[in-house]
Design goal:
By secondary structure, this protein is an alpha/beta fold. The protein folds into 2 domains: 144 residues, Aspartate Aminotransferase, domain 1; 239 residues, 3-Layer(aba) Sandwich (Aspartate Aminotransferase, domain 2), CATH 3.40.640. The strands form 3 sheets. A 7-stranded mixed sheet has the order 2-8-7-6-5-3-4. Helix 3 crosses helix 10, helix 10 crosses helix 11 and helix 11 runs parallel beside helix 14. The protein is globular, with a radius of gyration of 22 Å.
Length: 422
């Protein structure tokens, strides 16, 4: 297998200052490192434009222009049709809670919302709470044999009262990519809308909300090389119909502002420009000379190729052990897996394995990763849950080799061994 990276990794790693601190960071699904360019954008706003928008004076006009530039950058990042389709918020969790609140006038007792058991709680909890208002919540089960979502299991759940289907683009445990366009077509043909949590997808692949034909699409910037912030895409006409979360005089024409109570955090929104600048540079290094969007797509093609190398190196090691259970696909056939890989070792407590790895200055995570319903559904909550290694394109094959060598040492000793249940 060719192990030559398609990226200039020296350049890539130089753009993430946090990588110079001596740690191997394999907990990127919990939060990636932030780009130097994103930090610079934040600082620029705070120093040069740190006033409220809406004023007639020049600095306020510059702040408003920066916010619009932020929405335009996000538009290019997800291929929305206009900047006003971008809603900023503190986190994916908060944005989905806000969306559920803003949909309430559209829902009546007896209406139905379908969620998947494989989602992060962020895309279950807000809809679950609507049961207090008489909304019926249904769970689309995961096929336990294939660990996939089957449309044959969704079909009997849908009725003429189904208003929304909520699904993850990638599970932050299973790591496999769900066929969102196929699901969207299925849902739309039955008169419902679709809401996608893309937190575990957006750092790894080019997002194209128009090609996917999704109605709402949400992910966190702090897992996509930015600060602790998030964005939601929504089709403009649908955003216009949502209830205002802001002042009463923010009507249909106040899109997306009516969904950003108190206004967005301007400097964090502005960091989106730094993320797009970086992806544009990667696309240019890959030889793309077209539009910003085309450069973003070229960048993610190179990112995917690099991450495929990482996935195969780690999966090959895990497959070679007869004491390891990989949770999810054990191969990356067709590049359908992102480099988020959860696993368990026979008779080992996941927490103790991770804590032993701390001493190696290798950061990984254990538990259920706030996808507790999935962990419970798969009966993987004992012994500390699962170990998860989550990589992104700035990680290297050498880091994986260092990790697996450390894992060999840890597993060869009694360190990290818990008392296994009978």
């Amino acid at each position: 297998m060719n192990t030559t990276s398609p990226l200039d990794l020296d350049y890539v790693r130089s753009q993430f200052p946090g990588l110079a601190r001596g740690w191997t960071l394999f907990d990127n699904a919990g939060g990636s490192q932030i780009l130097k360019g994103a930090v610079e954008r934040i600082n620029t706003f705070l120093i040069e434009k740190n006033v409220q928008i809406g004023g007639s004076y020049a600095v306020s006009q510059a702040a408003a222009a920066a916010l619009y530039e932020s929405r335009t950058a996000a538009m290019n990042l997800v291929n929305a049709s206009r900047p006003e389709e971008i809603v900023f918020g503190a986190s994916t969790t908060q944005l989905l809670q806000n969306l559920a609140r803003a949909m309430q006038s559209q829902l009546s007792p007896g209406d139905e919302i379908i969620v998947t058991v494989s989602d992060h709680e962020s895309n279950i909890g807000p809809w679950d709470r609507l049961q207090e208002r008489g909304i019926t919540l249904k769970f689309w089960p995961l096929n336990k044999d294939t660990l996939t979502l089957d449309l044959a299991d969704l079909a009997p759940l849908m009725s003429d009262r189904t208003k929304l289907v909520c699904v993850t683009h990638v599970s932050n445990i299973l790591g496999s990519i769900n066929p969102i366009r196929e699901i969207a077509d299925f849902v739309h043909a039955r008169g419902a809308k679709i809401c996608v949590d893309a937190v575990a997808y957006a750092p790894h692949r080019a997002v194209d909300v128009q090609a996917l034909d999704v109605d709402y699409y949400v992910f966190s910037l702090y897992k996509t090389y930015g600060p602790h912030y998030a964005l939601m895409y929504g089709k403009y006409d649908l955003l216009a119909e949502l209830d205002t979360l802001y002042h009463y005089f923010y009507g249909k024409d106040k899109v997306p502002g009516k969904l950003e109570p108190g206004n967005p955090n301007y400097e964090l929104a502005y960091s989106t420009c730094g993320i797009v600048d970086y992806l544009t540079a990667l696309g240019e290094q890959a030889g793309e000379t077209g539009t910003v969007r085309q450069k973003i797509e070229a960048a993610f093609a190179a990112i995917t190729a690099q991450e495929n190398l990482l996935v195969e190196r780690l999966l090959a090691y895990l497959r070679s052990r007869n004491d390891c259970r990989i949770v999810g696909q054990t191969t990356n056939s067709g590049s359908t897996r992102v480099p988020t890989i959860a696993f368990r070792f026979d008779g080992r407590d996941a927490g103790e394995v991770c804590k032993a790895m701390d001493g190696e200055k290798i950061a990984i995570r254990f538990g259920d990763f706030h996808s507790r319903r999935l962990a419970e559904y798969l009966e993987l909550t004992d012994h500390g849950g699962m170990v998860r290694v989550s990589m992104v394109h700035y990680n290297t094959l050498d880091e994986i080799d260092r990790f697996t060598a450390a894992l060999d040492r840890i597993l060869a000793t009694d360190a990290g061994r818990a008392v296994a249940a009978a």
